[in-house]
Amino acid sequence: MAVSLDTGSVASAVDGARRGFLERFGGEPAGVWAAPGRVNVIGEHTDYNDGFVLPMAIDRACYAAAAPRADRILRVYAAQLDETVELSLDALVGPGSAADTRDAASTDMSPLAEPAAGGWAGYPVGVAWVLQQAGFPVGGADVYLSSTVPVGSGLSSSAALECATALALAGVSGFELTTHELALHTQRAENIYAGVPCGPLDQMSSAFGQDGSVLFIDTRSGEVRPQPFDLAAEDALLLVIDTRVSHDHGENGYADRRAACERAAEFLGVRALRDIALEDLPEAFAKVSVGLGETYARRLRHVVTEDARVQQFVAILNHEQFSLPPLGHRMMQSHASLRDDYEVSAPELDLAVATAVAAGAHGARMTGGGFGGSAIALVDRAVLEEVRDAVRAAFAEHGYTEPQFFPAVASAGARRIV
Ligand code: ADP
Ligand code: MG
Are strands 31-42 and 415-416 parallel, antiparallel or unpaired? Predict the structure, then answer.
């Protein structure tokens, strides 16, 4: 199987970005910045409900090599697409452009009607736009982007790209971003400029990642508590199974689930579904079933039980007798809830999860928004080959595209490398 990206691989990715920059733009970059993708270990579709999540940054990242320019032009080259976007930073503000009067304090995350750039370019240009709106002195820059995060696999290639771009722009323009500012403004860029209504999970994971730790995040308070997650000491690992089914297919599904949660919260008279306690769930479920229908009640049940599972998972991690089977059990419960109550799984994800567990994994679940993308399995190293072979064989038997496997290694968050 593909080995994880070790320090040598980071060095070669950085070297590749430097050489790519030189070829594309001429001259040496002023620096190289990196921002990782993530897997969410547990706590899915809770981040836009003010709830709890438990992601970790992984050792796959977007690398940005950049240099300042004397003018106000921003040029961004995406190596994987071999495409460049070029525009004036002055076109991102002022009359007759994609100007928006929202400042950084605004909580309005609705999309811009006419962004100056769309498609992939909406992500980096959105970052420049949002930083300017927030009053940061963004200067002209050449940026070369190259990523090792698979795109559209539910591993947050978009947040990696946004965070790497933001740090590179800050670095070459000579201003600092706190980790919280980095997460907040990149999420705003994705929501407002790229028009994707994601919660804070992805950008916070990429910004706050820590070597060897998962991040317990309370998305209401913004508190981030790194939690040691040393699976190597248990002779185990978290295996990513990329189903190769793009989650694009479910784009409306995401917005639909989000709207359903907001409607249920409003109906129950709470700010967000996070405010429904587990012990109040039976009553709330009955109320929503009658008032809005059973589908809404099942969406509610997923969110409330998932928040509880995140807290249970963290309690197990903190327990002196840390053991893997109860963690795997919570992952299985999470997957069943996402499949049956929230209805965001896909046949490929269900097959990956069921097969991995039948072949000896402690537990498995879909990770990310669903409708495709990746599953993760908690496996002892001793059964790694069996699990991988069984999933590969099951996919072949069903006529599905061959999945990709790699270990998720808890890694550092967005940072300057050179
Ligand atoms: P993911 O789960 O990978 O974040 P998204 O749909 O949120 O999936 O984001 C994927 C999109 O982000 C791509 O379609 C593309 O527009 C942009 N993107 C991600 N990585 C790159 C990259 N390396 N180069 C150019 N665009 C990228
Ligand atoms: Mg994304």
Answer: antiparallel
Other beta carbons less than 10 A from residue 412's beta carbon? 19
> Which atom of ligand 1 is found nearest the CA of 368?
2
pLDDT in tens, 138-166: 999 999 999 999 998 999 999 999 999 99
CA distances from 326 to 116, 165, 319, 364 (A): 49, 39, 11, 12
Q: Specify the DSSP class assigned to residue 70.
A: S
Give CA–CA dist 209/57, Å, rounded. Answer: 5
φ/ψ (deg, to 5) at 239 = -100, 125
| Res. 109 pLDDT band, cuts 50 70 90 | confident
Task: List, for residues 350-378, the tens digit of each pLDDT value.
Answer: 999 999 999 999 999 999 999 999 999 99
Bridge partners (DSSP) of residue 73 are 88
Phi-psi region of 66 (alpha: psi -120 to 50; beta: other; left: phi over 0): beta
d(CA 342, CA 307): 14
- Choose among 32, 35, 77, 11: nearest CA to 172: 32
**At 227, is the secondary structure helix, strand, or coil?**
strand
Cβ atoms within 10 Å of 214's Cβ, excluding its own: 28
- Whether residue 108 lies in the annotated active site: no
Q: Is 92 in the pocket of ligand 1 (CB under 6 A)?
A: no
pTM (2 d.p.): 0.95
Probe target for ligand 1 pocket from 47, 63, 158, 252, with the most ligand atoms within 8 Å of CB: 158
Give the three-state DSSP class for 239.
strand
| DSSP β-bridge partners for residue 161 | none
